[in-house]
Structure prediction request, 429 residues.
Amino acid sequence: MALIPTKRVFALCDANSFYASCEKVFRPDLEGKPIVVLSNNDGCVVAQSKEAKEILEIYMCRPWHELQDDAERLGVICFSSNYELYGNMSNRFMQTLSQFTFRQEVYSIDESFLDMTGINRDYSKYGLEIKDTVKRWTGLPICVGFGHSKTLAKLANHIAKKQDRFNGVCDLTTMSPSDLDQIMESLPISKVWGIGSRLELKLNAVGINNVLRLKRADPKRIRDEFGVLLERTINELNGQVMLDMEDRLPEAKQVMSSRSFGARVSDFEELKQAIAYHAGMAAERMRAKGLYTNAIYVFAQNSPFDKAAFYGKSLTIGLPSPTDNTMQINQAAQWLLKRIFKPGIYYQKAGVMLMGLVPKAGQQGDLFDYNANHIKKTKLMETMDALNRKYAKGTIRLGGEGLTKDWKMRRNFKSPNYTGNWNELPRLY
Prediction:
């Protein structure tokens, strides 16, 4: 007797208002309060709690200075982006999810796909179990969507988040065809994964103005007019798996460290410190991926909105052989900085990019000993990374980074790094 193949089932777990929710985990007094999180240098709003969305009604990335007075009058609580905290909370979230499936794909800092194929459970109840466990173990509120493709799972997650009757869990796999069609007909096509505003306008122009119409569109015609990616989306909306699970993140082609300065920089020594900092950060991130760099790119610029003429310069240098050594990377970056620096410029931003990345394993040494004492240098880098992981980023760093960092990113409303710094642990009084 032939076996009937099991139909694929995917779940998408997504944390609600992730940045704002992370801020609430260690501050129970913030529950129910309107919260916004700001971008680098406290410039724009990049995240809002549900309560803030209801009273402010602002669009994302609106400059904070435009709404600060209204926000303070309405009791909105403001935080600078605490990337260290958010990264640690994301790791806890993903580790918690991993126990519910044999196969997981971390899609973003606050989203993860789970392969549920073959797990013989009531998915609505299983989704509630996932949701409740994540809340108990991490303090983060999440929504869960189930579908026969990743696109349907993502759509189900959106429905779970926006329609209270689902209680944060939506299972499209057991929904009747008529009920599913009714929901799809009520949703604009912008709610489908991968469809942006421009594509939505083009589809609306040919009469496709809701998800159901897109699902029922002729795939061949859509491919001819809009390309193969949209054809794939239609197939996914019809339950055909065109996007499978990714067990590994795609190998990085480049690693970059860059930030706008908290205060304008015109002094060369200060700019050298900033470049040393970015070289160290980029090198550490690259080593975490098990990669070497073949080339280094450095840039520095003032603001395009300054009254002075815009100045932005960049240069790239290839290395004699691949390396992951922070000192060598910084040496090359400083050499480039000397050639792009121009006196009299009030620099607003600078950064370092490591390019031409290759796997660490199997690298061949060079004839002229660029990587002399390779084993000793590797152990030094491993020790630096281990100490920075154990204590806090920047515990061990290049002397060229300086001590004061007056140029560093402005974060006037930053919360403590509760999960990554012993000196900032929550205290009970």
